[in-house]
Design goal:
Layout lengths: L9 E5 L2 H4 L18 H4 L2 H6 L1 H15 L8 H13 L3 E5 L5 H4 L6 E2 L2 E8 L5 E3 L18 E5 L9 H9 L3 E5 L11 H7 L3 E6 L11 E4 L2 H15 L3
Bound molecules: 2'-O-acetyl adenosine-5-diphosphoribose (OAD).
Amino acid sequence: MPSDQSLPNIVILTGAGISAESGLKTFRDNDGLWENHRVEEVATPEAFEQNPSLVYRFYNARRAQLQQDDVNPNAAHEALAKLEKAFGSNLMLVTQNVDDLHERGGSQSVYHMHGKLLSARCAITQQTFDWSDSFDHTTKCPCCNRVTLRPDIVWFGEMPMYMEEIYDALSKADVFVAIGTSGNVYPAAGFVQIAKESGAHTIEANLEPGVTNALFDESLTGPASHIVPQWVDQLISKYAL
Ligand code: OAD
């Protein structure tokens, strides 16, 4: 669908903070530990090489947790789905999150730049498969029938996904909003600078100012489930959608 010239082009980047009220822990709010692990123990290619059992176990636990009955999208995820309905292809939703809460909240198009928990990837062909159960070094890959499956997650030191599409959208953005992300991890933390250089109005929506806060034109401070629906409703009524 072509974009509507009468509406602004919006790029939204979300991080762990948008899913915090859905019961998923953020990365840096718990003494720097992610579910009791240092990130280098579980989220690097080196960790997978040295201790694959731990890495499989860790992501199997995250995948199971995501599918528990008490983990559900919150009002912020739902508001972004409403924004997508109103703005169509003028909106690009990029997430650093590997959960599926945007999709369950109703968003149709979500760019998971750090991969997905509910997916497995063949380390040889790079083919991906929807995957909701546990898997490990004994699980046969559906494409090559060998034991080559790895979590479909972008680990530290690996290239995030969809970078070409994201940079293209940032270069055309009129509005850039970062929601629930601390601004510690690049390249995502650099998106605000790129959007600003393209002339976008930049907004940070977070529980507290992140490390790149000075680069934003506007700050919305508070829990995502309050500030995001408010902002979305204002934008929708501004454009009478
Ligand atoms: P962080 O844990 O670094 O930051 C989460 C941010 O959300 C913090 O700034 C919190 O203040 C904020 N926050 C917490 N609760 C909130 C709430 N209810 N409403 C709004 N904001 C809230 O997470 P990310 O910035 O997403 O990468 O981390 C980026 C990447 O680092 C992750 O994608 C992950 C990690 O290592 C990979 O796994 C590849």
